[in-house]
Amino acid sequence: MKIEKDVAVTVHFKVSELTGKLLDDGKEPVAYLHGGYGNVPPKVEKALEGQSAGYQVTLDLQPEDAFGVHDENLVQTISKSQFPPGVKVGGQLQGPDREGRARTFIVKKIKGQEVFLDGNHPLAGKGLRFDVTVIGVRAASVEEVEHGHVHGDGGHHH
Ligand code: ZN
Description:
By secondary structure, this protein is mostly beta strands. It has helices at residues 42-48, 142-147; strands at 7-17, 22-24, 30-33, 56-61, 75-79, 92-96, 102-111, 114-118, 128-139. It folds into 2 domains: 7-67 and 124-147, Chitinase A, domain 3, CATH 3.10.50; 72-118, Thrombin, subunit H (Beta Barrel). Strands 1, 2, 3, 4 and 9 form a 5-stranded antiparallel sheet that branches. It has a 4-stranded antiparallel sheet with strand order 5-8-7-6, with no helix packed on it. It binds zinc ion (ZN).
């Protein structure tokens, strides 16, 4: 079976920075729904289109093709008094960005009464190398297509 729209694809994604630093060894298989559902970067989907199980490819992606460039507008400082107690550096906080959209912020630094937050994806601004191995391809269920993601092993559980 070939990879095309609305097919559930199981892959090993080994991810490293272009500098060679390993970020994810990809040992844990990941399942995604193919066809522009935003589960994997579009350039990765394009490389896998029409391929089948056993296919292997290495892709070097620039930040704008991976998790985006680092957006300074998403770096914010708030007062400690606005802050829920118990959140530490490296912790996460849900909140609206300047346009009012819900976003996850990472606590970068706490200095005196100021808390420094970053709403960028942790991999934003980084060029990434994806070593992709396709291990399984199957038709997605109607429910999976409705949800826009794969269920079960390597996918969503809910
Ligand atoms: Zn679902």
